[in-house]
Amino acid sequence: MSLSYDFQCQHYDVVVSDRCLTAPTHEDRQQYQALVNNIGDSAVHGPYSFKTDRVTIDPCALPTEFVADEERRDSLVDELITTEENYVSNMTAFCDIIVKPLRLRAKNSKNLIIGLYQCNTIFNNVEQILEVNKSFLSELLIWRSTREAVFGDICAKYLYHMECYTKFLQGVDAAQEINAQEHKTNYNYRLFLQSATQNTRLGGHTLYSMLAQPGQRITRYTMLLTKILKHTDPSDKNHSSLIAALKKADEIATLADDSPTKLAKVFFNMHRSILNCPPTLISQSRTLVSHLDAVELDPATLRPQRPVTIFLLTDKLMIVRRPAYAVRGLDLCGLGNESPAFESVLLKKLEKNSLKSEKQLKFKDWINLGDVEILQGNQGNGQ
Amino acid sequence: MREYKLVVLGSGGVGKSALVCSLQVAVQPAPSPTHSLIFLLQTVQFVQSIFVEKYDPTIEDSYRKQVEVDGQQCMLEILDTAGTEQFTAMRDLYMKNGQGFILVFSITSMVTMNDLYELREQILRVKDTDNVPLVLVGNKCDLEDERMVSREQGMMLSQQWGGKPFYETSARQKINVDEVFYDLVRQINRQMPARDKSKKKFKCLIL
C-alpha cells in the first residue's frame, strides 16, 4: 500500500502480510480492517506477480456493492448447505465403494487390482478431503438448527482446513492419466469399476467424474460466497469472515504454488530448456529479477552478431544464446506464459527430444554481479 | 458403448449449465413431475430470475447421458465448468481430459463472445493441436430484443476458427440444444474413429 499526503509529498510503502487479510480470528481481521479504513482501501493492492511484473488489485479487498435482500441471502446460504450435503454424500459413497476396497486390496499382493502406487496417485488424499467436508457439513447443520455460531466464521474456519484440496488438485491430472491407462490395460480394474459404478449410491458417477468433483466444489464456494457477500451488510459480524473464506477459496482454486515451489519451478524450467545450463542455477537463495532479449554486437564494428538473452539473477548475470531474432527468450524456457499446461507441453517436447538443439536456448556464460562493469557506449549503446 | 468426454466453457452467466441441463431434459424425461424441476442447476439461478423459481440445488456438476447419434448409442460425460471463469489453472484440468468442447457465449453480450478467443487459445495450447472437436454456441437466442451479437458475427468467428459449426440456441426454449451435442459427437467420431472391434486378429497356431 502506498499513501501520500500532499503537504509532505512523501510516499510511504506499507507492506502488510497476506495473513492479515485472511486472519482466522475475528479480532485480527477487525484490526486489519481498521487500518484499511484509516488509509482508505482504494490504496490496497494485492500481491506482486512475478510473471506479469505488476501488482494486481485484489478483488477481494475491494468493497463489494451491498444489495439488501435477506430472502435471496437465505436461499443462497441454504443452497450452500444443501449442495454440501449432496457433495459429502457423493464423496462418502465414492470412498466406501471404490477407494476403500481398492486401497485394501492393494496391500495384499495376491488380491490386488491395482498397485499401491496407482492407488495413491489416483485417490491421493481424498479421504482427508472427505473428513474436512464432513466436519464442515455437521457444523453447518448444527448452525442451521441452533443459529448460535456465526455462519461466516464456520465457512472461514473450514476453508482454511481445505488447504488439503491443493494437494489433491495438483495431483488430479496425474490421477486421471493413471486411471485412463489402467482402464485401458487392466481387465480386473475395468471389471471392478463397472460393477462398483452400478451401485445406486454413486448415482451413476464414474471415477472420472468423481475425481473432478473436488475441483468443481471449490469453484462453487467462490461463486456462492461472492453472491452471499453481495447480500451481506458490511457492518454484519459475518462480513469479514466471509471475505476471509472467499479469499481462501479463491487461493485454493487458483492452484497457486507456494513461493519456494514457484522459485524451484522457474529455475527447473530454465535448467531443462537451456542447453548446457549449469545445474547450480537451481538454488533457493537466488531469484530471477529480470530478463532482456538483446543483440550481441561486435565491439569493434558495432555490427550485430547474434541474438542473446540476458537473465539478471539476484547474484549473477547469465547470458544465453537465442536461436533466432524473432523468438522471445522467455517463451523458450517455459516462463513466457502464465498457464502451467504450456510448461508441461514444453517439457514433454523436451523429453521427446522433439525440440531440436538449434531451436533451444544455449548457455554461454554467467558472472557474479560484483564483477560486472557497466560501460556507456559511444552512441549510447551500452553493453 | 463409446464414451465421450465433453466440456462446456464460456463466461459467467452465458447459460452453460442451462444448456447442459436442457439436453438432459430433452433426451431423458424426468421420471416424476417433481424431478423434472431438479435439472436446473447451480449456476442457472445466477443467470435469470425466471429460472430461479424452479431451481432446486439437488444437482450434480457432471452429467452422464446416454444418447443416440446416427444409430449409435453414445455415453456423454459432460463437465460443466461453471465458476472457473477466473481460474486458468483449474480450466486447464478440465481441458486436458476433454475430447470435445462447447464454447458458449450469450447473444445478449458482445464481451462474452470476445472472451472465447482466449478460451480457444487455451484449449489449443493444452491439447497441443490446431484441430480440436469444437462447437461455437450463441445461447439465449430467445432474447431477440436484447440481441447484441448478430448471427453473422457468430458465423464469422466460427469460420475464422477453421469452419467449426455454429449454433444459436435457447436453453430455455430447448432450441438447437441436442444438435450442439450431436454435432460434437460426430466431430469426435470423424477425428478419432472408434477401433473396430469386430475385426479379430487371427493368430497362427503351430502344433
TrEMBL record, chain A:
It comes from the Eukaryota. One of its GO terms (molecular function) is guanyl-nucleotide exchange factor activity. One of its GO terms (cellular component) is cytoplasm. It comes from Umbelopsis vinacea. This is DH domain-containing protein. InterPro entries: DBL_dom_sf, DH_dom, FYVE_RhoGEF_PH. Residues 72-259 form the DH domain. Gene3D superfamilies: Dbl homology (DH) domain.
From TrEMBL, chain B:
It is found in: Cell membrane. GO terms for biological process: regulation of positive chemotaxis to cAMP; signal transduction. Pfam families: Ras (PF00071). Its main location: membrane. GO terms for cellular component: plasma membrane. Keywords: Cell membrane, GTP-binding, Hydrolase, Membrane, Nucleotide-binding. It comes from the Eukaryota. GO terms for molecular function: GTP binding; GTPase activity. NCBIfam families: small_GTP. This is Uncharacterized protein. The lineage of its organism: Eukaryota, Fungi, Fungi incertae sedis, Mucoromycota, Mucoromycotina.
